[in-house]
Amino acid sequence: MLIGFAGLGRMGHPMATHLVRAGHTVLAYDPAPGVTPPGATAVATAEDLTAAPLSISMLPDGPSTSTVVSEILRGTRAGHLHIVMGTIGPDAVRGLGELPHLELIDAPVSGSVSMAEAATLTTMVGASDEQFERARPVLAAMTAAQFHAGPVGAGSAAKLAVNAVLAGLNQAVAEGLLIAEAGALDLDLFYDILVGSAAGAPYVGYKRRAYLAPESTAVAAPVSLIRKDLGLALDLARRHGLDLPVAEAALDVLDVTVRSGLADADMARVLTALRERAETRAHTTPSDPRPTGVRA
Question: Known catalytic residue: 207?
Answer without folding.
Answer: no
